[in-house]
Amino acid sequence: MTNPLSIRVLRPDEFEHAWPIFRAVVAEGDTYSYAPDTDLETARALWTTPPARTYVAERDGEVLGCYLLKPNQPGLGDHVANAGYMVARSARGQGIASTLCAHSLDEARRQGFTAMQYNFVVSTNEGAVRLWQRHGFQIVGRVPGAFRHATRGLTDILVMHRLL
Amino acid sequence: MTNPLSIRVLRPDEFEHAWPIFRAVVAEGDTYSYAPDTDLETARALWTTPPARTYVAERDGEVLGCYLLKPNQPGLGDHVANAGYMVARSARGQGIASTLCAHSLDEARRQGFTAMQYNFVVSTNEGAVRLWQRHGFQIVGRVPGAFRHATRGLTDILVMHRLL
Questions:
Q1: Residues near B139 by beta carbon (within 8 Å), at least 6 away in sequence
Q2: Are A83 and A108 in contact (CB under 8 A)?
Q3: B53 three-class SS
Q4: Interchain contact A27–B (C-beta under 8 A)
Q5: Which residue(s) pair with B72 in the sheet?
Q6: How far is CA A77 from the centre of its chain?
Q7: pLDDT at B143 over 90
Q8: B33-38: long-range contacts (C-beta < 8 A, 24 or more apart)?
Q9: pLDDT tens-digit series, residues A136-158
Q10: What distance in Å separates the CA atoms of residue A4 and residue B53, rounded to the nearest whole number?
Q11: Partner A contacted by B35 (CB < 8 A)
Q12: CB neighbours of A156 closer than 8 A, spacing ≥ 6?
């Protein structure tokens, strides 16, 4: 019997708990635009400087995934949330990204956001695209060659959106 | 006979030269997501913190317009530039936005960018949409209701793109 995931907000000074996953995901160079050698302090600033917040998913005290939640724009666009998800390689295929997505949608609603937008879904990340579609997102844009994929070269990115 | 526009980079400590235009454009609440009461230091940080740069267009010593040029993403997306343009109300209808756009495309090429992307073109700003299309941009996305327009309420935004 597997214990349930527990998801909580990380304080900025706790970002070290998410860092091993962040570092490993970014190093792969196939899903995020962050430089593959992004350092801890840059990552901490990107993911925890208010109004951005980082959440982690833990099971038996081990961090298996994390996500970023923030307004997608300042001011007159801050009713639309933005989020990004990362799962530890060792924990993939267990539905953790789906759990993180569902949690972020609830959390965004709770914070008063009325929509969620992803700006940079790598088009070759087909499992993720399908997963976001199952969570109600639609593809509302496609930018040609906006991502330098580590192995595929210039790759389209998708803009995805849903109301909350 | 009108003297030509002269366009130059502003240092961060010179942002006051662009500030009257920035403040006035943002206060209108119809083209940018920045909060209408954005303060000088926030604007300076947004528009001049490297790698972002602000350029101003001057005629006879008067600043008539300005633009922001920066990478649209960090790391693996930093081959795509992003720009935003502002023209003084008193100087509209003189083709200054078009001159700024052309200058930014040249400047982006010179800096090694291979594409330009606008993330947040307000769909009701039809003159701007047509102008960017004349400069080679295509609409590659449309996000429903992502902008709280000062007078029209929730308004779609467009993502526009061109190769350089």
A1: B129, B133, B158, B159, B160
A2: yes
A3: strand
A4: no
A5: none
A6: 19
A7: yes
A8: B33/A73, B33/A74, B33/A75, B33/A76, B33/A77, B33/A78, B33/B120, B33/B147, B34/A74, B34/A75, B34/A76, B35/A74, B35/A75, B35/A76, B36/A75, B36/A76, B36/B150, B38/A74, B38/A75
A9: 999 999 999 999 999 999 999 99
A10: 48
A11: yes
A12: A123, A142, A143, A144, A145, A146, A147
- C-alpha distance from A33 to closest chain B C-alpha (Å): 5
Tokens of B10: 């502003």
The C-alpha angle B84, B86, B88, rounded to 5 degrees, equals 175
Q: Enumerate residues 6+ apart whose C-beta is below 8 A from B132.
A: B101, B118, B121, B160
Q: Does A124 lie at the interface with B, CB-CB under 8 angstroms?
A: no
pLDDT at residue B2 greater than cutoff 80: no
pLDDT for the residue numbered B58: 96
pTM, rounded to two decimals: 0.96
Cβ-based neighbours of A158, under 8 Å, separated by 6 or more: A118, A121, A122, A123, A129, A139, A141, A142, A143
Q: What is the pLDDT of residues A86-119, one digit of tens each?
A: 999 999 999 999 999 999 999 999 999 999 999 9
* Encoded tokens for A49: 């400087």
Q: How far apart are CA A133 and CA B3, in angstroms?
A: 55
In 3D space, the residue among B80, B77, B147, B135 whose CA is nearest the CA of residue B109 turns out to be B80
Q: What token pair was written down for A120?
A: 């940079």
Tokens of A3: 């214990």
User: What's the whole-number average pLDDT of chain B?
Assistant: 97
Residue B90 to chain A, least CA–CA distance (Å) = 25
| H/E segment holding residue A28 | helix A19-28
Contact A117, A161 (CB under 8 A): yes
Planar angle of CA B43, A67, A114, nearest 5 degrees: 65
Contacts of residue A45 in chain B, CB cutoff 8 Å? none
Distance of alpha carbon B135 from alpha carbon B24, whole angstroms: 25
For residue B163, which amino acid is it?
A: L
